[in-house]
Input
Amino acid sequence: MDSKALNARITLTKVLVVDDDLYMRKVVRTMLMTIGVRNIEEASNGLIGIDVIRSMAPDVVILDWEMPGLDGVQFMRTVRSPETFPYPDVSVIMLSGHGERSRVVDAMKAGVNEFLLKPVSVKALRERLVAVLANPRPMIRSGDYYGPMPRKIVVPSNAEVDDMTTLFMVN
Output
């Protein structure tokens, strides 16, 4: 996708920001506007975010990990349920203040498309937005997992792959 087409696509992209912190929602909104996104909705918690997805049908959700009530991982379990949720394929970029490897792996197991560590830069946010818009990974089902195909799959030679836990072992 050339840069002119990409910029046009970004301008038309519908983004939902789900974060319990008002300040963080405003920061992310400002960054998205700087990138060129014009259609931005906000939700102050996961339950409201689920309702907004149903009414808005966003192209991308930017999701906080830690929220009271329904946290980011629980939110993802609801969204990535194609039998019961109307938009299970929506692209999700998770934001977290916690960069431990286990958190990143848990987010990927939950079906997020991209992961960003707070504090986030406009450049990093744009890169992740471009990744989900211009180069979306196919959605797959494997056992209980439904979500984007992992970028890097490492399968131990003696393992049978019957669930995504095996597939998310990253070097």
User: Anything to note?
Assistant: Residues 74 and 161 are 24 Å apart (CA to CA). The first strand starts at residue 14 and ends at 18.
